[in-house]
Amino acid sequence: MAEITPDELPLVMRLALSYAPARSRYAMLVFMTLDHRFAQFVSQAKEPILAQMRLAWWRDELAKQPDVRAQGDPVLDALSEGWRGHELALSSLVDAWEELLAEPPLAETAPENFASGRALVFAAIARMAGDGEASGAVMLAGRRWALADLASKISDDEEKAIVVDVARRLGSSGPPLPRSMRPLTVLDGLARSAIAAGGTPLLQGRRSIALAMRLGLFGK
Q: What residues have CB less than 8 Å from 92, skipping those under 6 apart?
């Protein structure tokens, strides 16, 4: 398989990924790497059109059969090897990040669309790991994490409040996730804490690290 490492991922993702079992770790790593790359496209582009062009390239490549995609990008190579048949979920990830490129203010539907697009990838990983029956619980946890992650990165107080409100409407509980989804269990636990605090960073001090370690080891 194509070699990619978690070295460039944010600390919270690296920490969550460290608790992934073998059957889902590679799919998780590829997803997190692609998601982080899209986040950089959106946050670092001086002009939205530049980020849109990059996302459009990925959408076009994912629509192709793996054998005719561009070669040489380690993430795309990894997707072509390990995500055959699940490209629709990855296209939803492209759509999710594109939601944030519209002219401000943040559209009313953007937070929910963004969260659902990212959560669909976790649901695909659950199916790939043989845990498709947990898709509903996975979607709930994935949406909550996506919203908490988004809220933690928004500087505008009004927009942050909107995202936090959408997240709080999802509730602060849910069914336990299967072992294959242990990284999401960690992220969701951190997300619940961050949402309760009004949209703070998911990792903030020793208490959040201790929470992540407990969830990673025991799942609760």
A: 116, 117, 120, 121
The pTM of the whole model exceeds 0.90: yes
Bond preceding residue 74 cis, omega within 30 of 0: no
The domains of the chain are located at 13-218
Element containing residue 131 per DSSP (H, E): none
Considering only CA atoms, give the Rg of the chain: 16
Tokens coding 35: 């998601």
pLDDT band at residue 1 using 50, 70 and 90 as cut-offs = low
- Residue that the structure tokens 């460290």 belong to: 18
The helix/strand/coil state of 102 is: coil
Give CA–CA dist 182/59, Å, rounded.
Answer: 28
Alpha-carbon gap, residue 173 to 137, rounded angstroms: 10
pLDDT in tens, 31-67: 999 999 999 999 988 888 999 999 999 999 999 998 8
pLDDT tens digits, residue range 79-126? 888 888 888 889 999 999 999 998 888 888 999 999 999 999 999 999
CA 118, CA 8: separation in Å to the nearest integer?
19
Would you say 13 and 30 are in contact if contact means Cβ atoms under 8 Å apart? no
SS3 state of residue 26: helix
